[in-house]
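Q: What changes when GMT is included in the input?
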Amino acid sequence: MNIAIVCYPTYGGSGVVATELGKGLAAREHEIHFISYKMPSRLTASYDRTYFHEVEIPSYPLFEYPPYALSLASKMVEIIEYQNIDILHVHYCIPHSISGFIAKKITNKRDVKLITTLHGTDITVVGNDPSFLPVTKFGIEVSDGVTAVSDYLKRQTYKEFDISKEIQTIYNFVDTKLFKRVKNDKLKKTFASEGEKVISHITNFRTVKKIESVIRIFKIILEKINSVLLLIGDGPDRIKAEVMCREMNICDKVKFLGKQEGIVDLLSVSDLFLMPSETESFGLAALEAMSCEVPVIASDVGGLKELITEKTGYLIDKGDIEGMAKKGIEILSDKDLKDFLSKNARKRAVDFFDIDIIISEYEQYYERIKKTFTSF
Ligand code: GMT
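A: The predicted holo structure follows.
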């Protein structure tokens, strides 16, 4: 199939899933056309049968806010017309599914199927902002196929939007052959001294990720366990986190690493991963940690219970900082417990969320949607 994949290029879950999906599909002989306003962050090399099309955003004095959704629709029209596209797969509803609908209308090609994957904040935060609700609902309704990254998100979409559209859950995935624990003592020594434990957190530092909770949990753990905290990523709340560390006098123990490409190496030196998010439709970063044998302590919210079990980590009530720290101390001070959780975390990633399993699900879904009739 010729598949156009539309995503945000930034350091965020939906862009990562879209890019890894495209790379995985290209490896299975499909032709992939990525469309975005910038090269997606995980499209770091050139791959066979993979093309990137940049959306140019015109600046004109009249446009205080350049109409990105329309520039994107124009680019989609061009790609549909000239690349013989079968599937237009957009990741994150707003504004991608609306642009996709416009492009389909302009080209009038009913055989091109528009598939929208809902990722999380497009439904839970942005989508149900009253000003976005009607367009999000419309974007879902006019898609030929809709997938959600967890059953939780599917339920949430039905609840918030009062729609009858069929939504299929297709989970996030990880390439377990790449996301595999590697021994790297040299790297470990750059962060931690002998006997010091490494706790990690990957974040876009948005409010929903609750960075202040990560730091508070770490501070309590630190009182009992000699450890360091690696904060990987960047974003709006980073400065707040840096100020907190200064006030708590723990700057030497918290390493702000910024955006990193060598995630596998960093997870491989980690003993524990924290995800105390306010909400999380799936928790891709937690899955990547699990694949690298890192147990996860997370909030008991959203779709995280579809990923994390009592054999792979702990789900604790949202906001229960003491509870999360207590479990962290337990894991870091009991080698048998840590080994048990690590082994099962890896097993769960391999058995249920490996790239090969999930890419096959997407392929089957595309085949099914291709056979459906589009009335507009
Ligand atoms: O808001 C974010 O955290 C980023 C967002 C995205 O779409 O880039 O992440 C969401 O999509 C990921 C991939 O499907 C999921 O694993 C994350 O759980 C989800 N984030 C939230 O629901 C907060």
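Observations recorded in class: The chain has a mean pLDDT of 95.
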